[in-house]
Design goal:
By secondary structure, the protein is α/β, with parallel strands linked by helices. Helix content is 33%, strand content 22%. The chain is built from 13 helices and 20 strands. It has a nine-stranded mixed beta sheet with strand order 4-3-5-6-7-8-9-14-13. Strands 19-18-17-20 form a four-stranded mixed beta sheet. β6, α9 and β7 form a beta-alpha-beta unit. α10 packs across α12. The structure holds adenosine-5'-diphosphate and zinc ion. The site of zinc ion has 6 residues, from loops.
């Protein structure tokens, strides 16, 4: 039987959620207008007042917020409460530039724990579980976010944080951890080290994994599930909104339910800003409607996804978003063709390669080049030189068919690509260094 953390919300009729959203949105807009000069100025420029925002149908009237706004008001300019009411600060991991800072009141932390508790419960976690958290603890939201949700459920939390993979394996085995939380790329690395030590999935007790913070494909999911003997669930979030737990996956594994009583999601055309109908791919935009310290409005995530409201077999009625295929800024434009690293990952895993790969993009004489470097297994590595050349050729042809551009393929010996302990670095774009 399906278990929910808060069935009254997770399986609520749509009207109930909409009523909550209407009320919370108008209150939040009024509060930020009164307390944050940044939002008041922006709304005045757009010619809207809090009286214009009564229901979610008025949302589109509000101006967007961007990462740059957080940088311009760094560190505390978007906070809507006095600093004395802020009990925790977090900062983004700075994947794309200068770091940004967000704050939480005591109540914001409660809301966050609740969101993550829903995600853990959907993955089957109860107070009998041992939750091994290998997301980094610290300013990054992953570690403390997962920790808070596990504690809320009453599970036994193991706050390992990331790194020292050998020790992670020992702890997984000795403590009998049943649920693993980390990035998907780190889960794979932990699996590699487990096997390198002569163990297999039969030596550990993991039953579920909650993996997020970076894009990953379904092929990667199957690989992790097979190696660690668990069911892998996706979890989505970002520092600007709350951290992990903005949306979470259920057993159906076909997308993530958005915690709509706290966050309103929209999908827009990234070029025109126009709101797109459900089922259409575009940029995900979130509005926080319960946050006290950092209630950001219409935040442009740059993540590309689709939302759908079809019936889910788990019984949840919360809207679902697809696994984001990457950010608009992860998208590579190679000789005019759009390429997402996740498309390359799909081909590599389908063709039996490892998920240890890196994409190197360069430009010479105004001509973009793309090289896919991927590690091969020990058995393949002992193949003849001719055999290897044949393989590289076959992979290049498969990539060409899928991407529409020619990529150079370089097969590397095992363990030559640096392993990730957090978010994997998949792309080295040398063109950016030239700008
Ligand atoms: P940074 O922006 O410095 O990477 P965050 O930790 O806030 O810091 O990262 C949030 C971003 O991570 C999201 O905007 C999204 O691009 C990515 N992300 C988080 N969870 C997922 C997921 N489940 N699938 C794909 N991408 C994800
Ligand atoms: Zn579901």
């Amino acid at each position: 039987m399906e278990r929910y953390y808060q069935p009254e919300i997770e399986t609520a009729p749509r009207e109930k959620i909409v009523a909550l959203q209407n009320e919370r949105l108008s209150a939040t807009v009024r509060r930020v207008y009164e307390n944050v000069p940044f939002y008041r100025n922006k709304m005045e420029q757009a010619g809207v007042t809090p009286d214009d925002i009564r229901t979610i149908d008025d949302l589109h009237k509000l101006p967007f917020s961007y990462k740059q706004d957080l940088r311009d008001t760094y560190p505390y300019g978007l906070f809507a409460v006095p600093l004395k009411d802020v009990v925790r600060l977090h900062a983004s991991s700075g994947t794309t530039g200068k770091q940004i800072v967000v704050g939480y009141t005591r109540n914001d932390l409660e809301v966050w724990d609740e969101c993550v508790a829903r995600a853990l419960t959907a993955a089957g976690c109860t107070d009998e579980d041992i939750v091994h958290v290998s997301y980094g603890y610290g300013l990054f939201t992953g570690g403390l976010g997962a920790d808070g949700g596990a504690k809320r459920i009453g599970a036994t939390t193991v706050p390992v944080s990331s790194g020292n993979t050998q020790r992670q394996v020992t702890i997984l085995k000795d403590f009998g951890s049943t649920i693993l939380c980390c990035t998907p790329s780190y889960a794979l690395h932990i699996a590699e080290v487990l096997y390198a030590n002569g163990y297999t999935k039969d030596d550990i007790k993991l039953k579920a994994g909650i993996f997020g913070a970076e894009p990953w494909t379904n092929e990667m999911r199957r690989k992790i599930e097979e190696m660690l003997g668990l069911t892998a669930y996706d979890i989505y979030g970002l520092t600007e909104i709350i951290g992990p737990g903005v949306a979470f996956e259920c057993k159906e594994q076909t997308g993530m339910h958005v915690n709509e009583d706290h966050f309103i999601v929209e999908v827009i055309d990234p070029d025109t800003g126009e709101v797109l109908p459900e089922g259409t791919q575009g940029e995900l935009v979130f509005t926080c409607i319960t946050k006290e310290a950092f209630p950001i409005l219409r935040y442009r995530t740059r993540d590309i996804g689709v939302i759908t409201r079809g019936k889910c077999s788990c019984g949840r009625t919360l809207v679902k978003m697809t696994k984001p295929r990457g950010r608009t800024d992860d998208m590579l434009i190679i000789r005019g063709v759009n390429v997402f690293p996740s498309q390359i990952e799909t081909v590599l895993l389908e063709k039996g390669y490892t998920a240890n790969y890196q994409i190197v993009v360069d430009r010479a004489n105004n001509f973009d080049s793309i090289e896919v470097q991927v590690e091969i297994s020990n058995e393949i590595f002992s193949d003849t030189v001719r055999g290897l050349a044949e393989r590289a050729k076959e992979l290049a042809a498969a990539l060409k068919t899928l991407l529409g551009v020619t990529a150079k393929v370089t097969l590397l010996e095992p363990n030559s690509i640096p392993r990730s302990e957090g978010k994997a670095v998949r792309v080295i774009d040398k063109r950016k260094l030239l700008d």
